UniProtKB/TrEMBL annotation:
It comes from the Bacteria. Its cofactor is pyridoxal 5'-phosphate. It is an enzyme of class 2 (transferase). It comes from Filimonas lacunae. It catalyses: (sulfur carrier)-H + L-cysteine = (sulfur carrier)-SH + L-alanine. The keyword Cytoplasm does not apply. This is cysteine desulfurase.
Length: 405
């Protein structure tokens, strides 16, 4: 049974307590798109603007010191959350999309040349396809794809055949946003490294559902978005191994990243500053730090166990509904319950759920290749977080039963 009290935890999230949709209390099952924010995160951002707001030039004056301390404390929280060796390995960006573009356009642009190969998986979000495809087209690289089976699991035997000395990068997701598949990340990374390739892990859908340790994974880069882990929008993270980051030319140029500039020569700071040109999203980095405090207090292992139990509960009850096809049936899944309902468009299902105050996403979830691989263009996608309860799942299932009757 549940190992913690999701009903009590829900009370920390004002939107889940107070908001009504169509006269019904809100059931938020769109967590793969974005997550709701606990009061502690909302309060922390307000506190920053009320008491600490400044640009981050520590030495300038008192508030600059406060803002710098708050920002660097948040960086340290991210370091601990990911199990990174050094806070110098944590770069703040806008989100997972910007994070992947940063790696593609800095490291990729510097180190990859015509004939090199990049491997992605069939499960990827467009954010982990488009930057690589654009780079491949621009530089004459080859993009290869790890196929999946009918349950949505990576085919590791096929992956092994794709790897060669030409492989320079493997970029793949730890959890699929469209199917919920948890990939065998450690194995995928070890196989890539054995072939001499670097590895980028898209953690956008994993960090909110399971403990992550980038050193245990041995990822070269690991990226995620703050807003999917109960933090604010507009802030995200690139983790990269320190040596690799310092051997990479910056992506954008400007203030904050510079050791010395003349019109003849530029010297960059080491990481992280070399990748943080211009004034960053200081307040939301601080807000992300508060979100990390929140989930760390609950415990990622505890969250993972509770969500696993809730996902099994939801899967069992959804499978009883005649005409409901679950899309993505891997044994190892997190959060996501993509489906189609026979006789109803996904749009009709989404509207019927919204009528009852239940928020789910319908569409292609920015992951068209994997939905097409599963034989569909779109799906209805409820996705769970630790603040969801059995009652939330029951309301979803009851509404679906009422729809088909
Ligand atoms: N990768 C995955 C697996 C995602 O689910 C998402 C967000 N849907 C992204 C990348 C991109 O994240 P963002 O839009 O926050 O940059």
């Amino acid at each position: 049974g549940p190992v913690f009290d999701a009903y009590a935890i829900k009370k920390d999230f004002p939107i889940l307590v107070h908001e009504k949709v169509n006269g019904k209390s809100l059931v938020w099952l769109d967590n793969a798109a974005t997550t709701q924010k606990p009061q502690s995160v909302i309060d922390r951002i307000a506190y920053f603007y009320a008491h600490e707001n400044s640009n981050i030039h520590r030495a300038a004056h008192e508030l600059a010191a406060r803002a710098t301390d708050a920002y660097e404390t948040a960086r340290e929280k991210v370091r601990a959350f990911l199990g990174a060796k050094s806070a110098n390995e944590i770069i703040f960006v806008r989100g997972a999309t910007e994070a992947i573009n940063l790696v593609a356009q800095s490291w990729g642009n510097q180190y990859l040349k015509a004939g090199d190969e990049i491997i992605v998986s069939n499960l990827e979000h467009h954010a982990n396809i488009v930057p690589w495809k654009r780079l491949a087209d621009a530089k004459g690289l080859t993009l290869k794809v790890i196929p999946v089976d009918d349950d949505g699991q990576l085919l590791l035997d096929e992956y092994a055949k794709l790897l060669s000395p030409k492989t320079k990068l493997v970029a793949f997701t730890q959890v699929s946003n469209a199917l919920g598949t948890v990939t065998p990340a450690q194995q995928v990374i070890a196989m890539a490294h054995a072939a001499g390739a670097k590895v980028l892990v898209d953690g956008a859908q994993s960090v909110s559902h399971m403990p992550v340790n980038v050193q245990a994974l041995d990822a070269d880069w690991f990226v995620f978005s703050g807003h999917k882990v109960f933090g604010p929008t507009g802030i995200g993270v690139v983790y990269g191994k320190e040596g690799l980051l310092n051997a990479t030319e910056p992506w954008q140029g400007g203030g904050n990243m510079i050791k010395d500039v003349t019109f003849e020569e530029i010297q960059y700071h080491p990481s992280p500053n070399r990748f943080e040109a211009g004034t960053g999203n200081i307040a939301d980095a601080v807000g992300l730090g508060a979100a990390i405090d929140y989930v760390t207090k609950l415990g990622m292992e505890t969250i993972s166990q509770y969500e696993h139990w809730l996902l099994e509960y939801a899967t069992y009850h959804m499978k009883q509904i005649p005409g409901l096809r679950l899309i993505g049936t891997a044994p190892d899944k997190a959060s996501v319950l993509s489906f189609n309902l026979k006789g109803f468009s996904n749009d009709q299902v989404g509207k019927a759920l919204n009528q009852e105050g239940i928020a789910v996403r319908t569409g292609h979830h920015c992951a068209q290749p994997i939905l097409r691989r599963m034989g569909v263009e779109t799906s209805v996608r409820p996705s769970l977080a630790f603040y969801n309860t059995c009652e939330d799942v029951d309301r979803l299932v009851t509404t679906l039963w009422r729809l088909i009757k």
